[in-house]
Specification:
4 helices, mainly beta, disordered C terminus, eight-stranded antiparallel barrel, disordered N terminus, single chain
């Protein structure tokens, strides 16, 4: 889906310093990493127009889920400690972090000890997203509503900036629709990951422990009632 009517913006106000003339939107991303040591991609800013989406489960010092939306050639990124929930009442803290290269959405691997974000990164969900509002304006206002078409997550979601001292603090919230469901009925399983991560064999035991053992069961997107009926 093309979004030609939308103005171009790479970052919102709190980290606009990364977008000064002569410095690309990936400057902050690159300055934090030594690409001779980390397997992460240095990446390039892509042409605008793509709307990929992914979540990476990241067993760093604290386990979290990196939620990424492609906009204007980079991945806007939020670190969500508890991961997403299908329950609209269950608002999940999402800390805005530096924009990542679009290429990062295909990255899985282990960031070595001593490097920024050391720990295992596993692709947890992927697909596309559709902004339901002008995303540039929405990022400025602090309320971005969108639709997800992922392998696990679907339906309407919102990222809402928390009014307060920390300009990086947002909430990831499921909007009410047919994909919403109470947490008490069925939670998004944080241990449920996409199959086919061969690098998992290279993990040290404590790293395996951090991101949990592999579960190959497919994510059940149906309502509990549908699921109960097989
Ligand atoms: Mn991370």
């Amino acid at each position: 889906m093309r979004q030609k009517a939308f103005r171009t913006i790479h970052v919102d106000d709190h980290n606009s310093h990364v977008n000064r003339p002569g410095r690309g939107p990936l400057q902050e991303y690159r300055s934090k990493r030594d690409f001779s040591r980390t397997p992460e991609p240095a990446g390039e800013t892509r042409p605008a127009g793509g709307f990929s989406y992914c979540i990476q489960k990241h067993a760093a010092t604290r386990l979290h889920y990196d939620f990424r939306l492609e906009l204007d050639g980079v991945l806007l990124s939020w670190a969500v400690p508890k991961g997403p929930s299908f329950d609209p009442r269950d608002k999940r803290l999402a800390m805005r972090v530096e924009d990542h290269p679009v290429e990062y959405g295909g990255f899985e691997g282990v960031i070595p000890e001593g490097e920024y974000g050391a720990g295992a990164v596993v692709l947890w969900d992927r697909g596309t997203w559709t902004p339901l509002v002008d995303p540039a304006l929405a990022l400025k206002k602090g309320e971005l509503k969108f639709q997800l078409q992922g392998e696990k997550l679907a339906g309407k979601w919102a990222l809402v900036k928390i009014k307060g001292d920390d300009p990086k603090a947002w909430l990831l919230v499921k909007d009410k629709d047919e994909h919403a469901r109470p947490a008490a009925d069925l939670e998004v399983d944080p241990a449920d990951i996409l199959p086919n991560q061969s690098h998992r064999q290279d993990l040290k035991p404590h790293e395996k422990e951090k991101y949990g053992e592999e579960r190959e069961k497919p994510f059940d997107r149906r309502s509990p009632r549908q699921a109960a009926n097989g």
